[in-house]
Each structure stands twice: as structure tokens, then as C-alpha cells.
Amino acid sequence: MGFFDTKEGVSEYLEMAKGHDGRELIDKLSEYLAANSTVLELGMGPGKDLELLSKRYEVTGSDNSRLFIESYRRVNPDADLMLLDAVTLKTNRRFNCLYSNKVLQHLQRDDLEGSVPRQAEVLNEGGLLAHALWYGNKVENHGGLHFQYYEESELEEIFGEHFDVVMMERYEELDPGDSIFVILRKKDSVSL
User: Fold this and answer.
1) How confident is the chain (192 residues) per 10-residue block, as mean pLDDT?
2) What pLDDT, on a 0 to 100 scale, did the predictor assign at position 23?
3) Cα separations in angstroms, 94 against 83, 84, 104
4) Are the C-beta atoms of residues 116 and 99 closer than 8 Å to each other?
5) What's the pLDDT score for residue 163?
6) What is the rounded distance in angstroms from the CA atom of residue 120 to the CA atom of residue 128?
7) DSSP per position, 33-84
8) What are the angstrom distances between the C-alpha of 27 and each of 42, 52, 71?
9) Own/partner pairs for 89-92, CB < 8 Å, 24+ apart?
């Protein structure tokens, strides 16, 4: 059982996430992704970014935590939601963009590397990835949660075979330059 599979873990996360959302990230994404495009949010958690994304895009929320999915569905019964693992992405659906805000850093680096080809498969031709992660060169574990930090060169190495960098920039979530937001475009040579 994982951290987000317990009511205590979900409650702790909700407390940590108070006052944070991806509004600035989504504004940046809108410079590259047309309105009404299909977007799959990986790791929607309580749904803050899902709400923001839904104002511009045809959005599907996903999480690997049944508790987050059930909680959001109680308030939004018509929401398009999937119980989905960010590594295996077991779905037959295709999207114009995959979006995550501080989700993929919970994966071990080899799991992230293994998910990249699958992320490419889930995207339509020319589709985008938009991922926010913690910036740095370290690994931490806090209360059962894994945190993998990344620098630009590592992200280019991990995604480079299947994606071209469209935009990569550091930003502040808690401290100056503590985070990185990357937008990548699927290479034409990647087949479904």
C-alpha cells in the first residue's frame, strides 16, 4: 500500500499542497497548446489543476490513488477520470498533451525512463508533454514518499529519444529556482 492509498497520506498531502496550484504552468502551456485540445493530467490529486485545465481544454484526470479519484468524483460526478499508473499508462485513449505537476518526481529514475516510450504512444502526432518537477541533483525520501530531483541535462537525456524540447525553464515554488517546467513535443519518428 502506497502513501496515497491511505486516508492519512492523502490528508497529509492535502495539507502540504495548500496554496499551491499550476496556474502559472497552465498559462505557459497555453502558449504552445491550442484551446480545446485533449489533455490527460497525470496524478491529479485533489483536482486543483484539473479544474484550471478544464477552463481551456478537454481534460481527463487520472491518478494512481483510488481515494483521490473517488473524492473528486463525489463532487464532480460527470468528470472524465481514470485510475491510471503514470509508468504503465494502461489506456487505449490518445491525447494532444500529457500534463503533470510535481508527480513524476515520485518515480524512481528508471521508472520514469521506462514510462517515456509509453508517454509517446499515448500522444497524438505532434503531441506535447508538460511536466513540472523539483530542480536539482539529489534523491530524498520523506514519510514514505520518494522525491527525485532533475536538472536540464538529465531531462534531455531521459526524454531526448522520443521528444524534442520546446521549452524548459526554472521557476519558484517554495524557493527561487527550486522547480523546473518542461514542455516537449513528440518526435515525428515515434510510431503508435
Assistant:
1) 55 59 94 98 94 97 92 94 96 98 93 97 97 96 86 97 97 94 86 42
2) 93
3) 16, 14, 19
4) no
5) 98
6) 9
7) S-TT-EEEESS-TTSHHHHHHHTTSEEEEEES-HHHHHHHHHH-TT--EEE-
8) 18, 10, 26
9) 89/115, 89/118, 89/119, 89/121, 89/122, 91/122
Show the domain range for 70: 3-186
Copy the grid coordinates of residue 107: 518515480
- Other C-beta atoms lying within 10 Å of the C-beta of residue 88: 12
- CATH code for the domain of 86: 3.40.50.150
The answer to whether position 61 is within a domain reads: yes
What pLDDT is attached to residue 109? 95
Q: Which three cell numbers stand for residue 110?
A: 528508471
C-alpha dihedral, 33 to 79 to 63 to 111, nearest 10°: -40
